[in-house]
Amino acid sequence: MGGAPPYVILGRGRWATRMRSILAAEGRSVSIIPVTRQASGEAEATYRSRLCEAMAASEAQIAWLCVLPGPHIPLMIEAALDAGLHVVVEKPWQGSQRVTSSLVARAKSQHRLLAVHFEYCLLEEVERWRRDFHPGTGLRFGGHFFLSRPDHTGMPAIDNLGSHLLAIRAYAAPPAVRAARNSLWLRAAG
């Protein structure tokens, strides 16, 4: 199949709308499944099956989960894998090591990709850090939050912003030594 792969977005909030616009602007086919919550009393198997059927009907190749983190995320990923899709999950990833390993093993066995989306890694400044400092050997990387209140969804700053900080380090300068409390910086150690 030629061209850009089609996407299906799970979610109906502000971020789902924004991701749909971004993907559509890149010429990608995008559909949305707005009803993603597990209904009260709905069994996990029924929930997974419902989502799988909706994703399969979308004819997408990639599912983008634009929903808040929680215990529903692994079920959504399993449903997407049941439908034969690759999966992009919004940060922060909060799955246990056991759940994560199981999902990764299943995706690999099906030749599917699982990804966590960290949009800050796409910032021009981060790309410059990667270009100028990668791989980061001999560098110190640190950060300090000046914001401690939860975001509009109630997600704590350490989970929301902290996940970005760790992703930026892993992307731009993975061997950089973690530094103690300072404002965000990347510089030569010593």
Protein structure class: alpha/beta
Q: Strand tally, please?
A: 8
Based on CA atoms alone, the radius of gyration comes out at 18 Å
Please describe the biggest sheet, giving its number of strands, its sense, and whether it closes into a barrel: 5 strands, parallel
Overall description:
By secondary structure, this protein is an alpha/beta fold. The chain has 2 domains: 7-117, Rossmann fold, CATH 3.40.50.720; 122-188, no CATH class. Helix content is 40%, strand content 16%. The chain contains 6 helices and 8 strands; from the N terminus they run E-H-E-H-E-H-E-H-E-H-E-H-E-E. It has helices at residues 14-25, 44-57, 72-82, 97-109, 124-133, 157-172; strands spanning 7-10, 30-33, 62-65, 86-90, 114-117, 139-142, 177-178, 185-188. The strands form 2 sheets. It has a 5-stranded parallel sheet with strand order 2-1-3-4-5, sandwiched between helices. Strands 7-6-8 form a 3-stranded mixed sheet, with no helix packed on it. Helix 4 (97-109) links the parallel strand 4 (86-90) and strand 5. Helix 2 (44-57) packs across helix 3 (72-82) and helix 3 runs parallel beside helix 4 (97-109). The chain is globular and about 50 Å long. It starts with 6 loop residues before the first strand and ends with a strand. The model is unreliable at 182-190 (pLDDT under 50).
